[in-house]
Amino acid sequence: MTEPADKGPPYRGYHDIGGLPGGPVACVERPFDDWQKLSEAIRGALEQKNRTVSLDEIRRVFESFGEHLYETLGFYERRAEALTILLTEKEIVTREEVLARMDAIAALRGQRVDHAARTVETL
Amino acid sequence: MTPEPIGYSADAVDPSRPVVEGHEGADYYALMTEALHKILLEKQILAPADTDRVIAALEAPNVTWGARIVAQAWKDPSYKARLIADGSAAAREMGYTIKEAKLVVVENTERLHNVIVCTLCSCYPRSLLGQPPWWYISKNYRARTVREPRAVLAEFGTSIPADVEVRVHDSNADMRYLVLPKAPADADGRAFEDLVGVVTRNMLIGTEIVEPYRSP
Amino acid sequence: MPRFSPGDRVTVLDLGKPGHVRIPWFIRHRTGRIERYCGAYPNPEDLAFGRPGLPAIDLYRVHFPQTDLWPDYGGAASDTLEIEVYDHWLEPAEPLT
Question: What is the ipTM of this complex?
Answer without folding.
Answer: 0.96
